[in-house]
């Protein structure tokens, strides 16, 4: 069974419905990083995203 990584932006930033889901962790982190920067103007490190925001689904 393949695990996917999911980031639900709403859990990090209130009122954002953006959801990323990917079977590729690197890709999920890259997409999350770009979204956080472009949409929310916040810089997150890979570690922060991986440890605090990504869920395994
Ligand atoms: Zn967002």
What this model shows, in words?
The protein is 49% helix and 19% strand. It is of the alpha+beta class and 57 residues long. It has one domain (5-56). A three-stranded antiparallel β-sheet has the order 2-1-3. The radius of gyration is 10 Å and the shape is globular. The mean pLDDT is 92. Zinc ion (ZN) binds next to helix 2. This is DUF1059 domain-containing protein.
How many separate domains make up the residues? 1
Measured distance between first and last alpha carbons:
11 Å
Q: SSE string, helix = H, strand = E? A: EHEHHE
Number of helices: 3
Q: Which small compounds were modeled alongside the protein?
A: zinc ion
| Arithmetic mean pLDDT | 92
Largest sheet: 3 strands, antiparallel
Query: Which structural class should the secondary elements be placed in?
Result: alpha+beta
Helix content: 40-55%
The gross shape turns out to be globular
Radius of gyration: 10 Å
Low-confidence stretches: none
Walk across the major sheet and give the strand order: 2-1-3
Tally the beta strands: 3
Pfam families: DUF1059
Protein name: DUF1059 domain-containing protein
Organism: Halomarina ordinaria
Short précis:
The chain contains three helices and three strands, in the order βαβααβ.
């Amino acid at each position: 069974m393949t695990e996917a990584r999911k980031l639900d932006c709403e859990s990090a930033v209130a009122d954002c419905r953006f959801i990323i889901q990917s079977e590729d962790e690197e890709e999920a982190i890259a997409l999350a990083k770009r979204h956080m920067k472009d949409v929310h103007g916040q810089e997150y490190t890979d570690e922060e995203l991986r440890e605090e925001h990504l869920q395994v689904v």
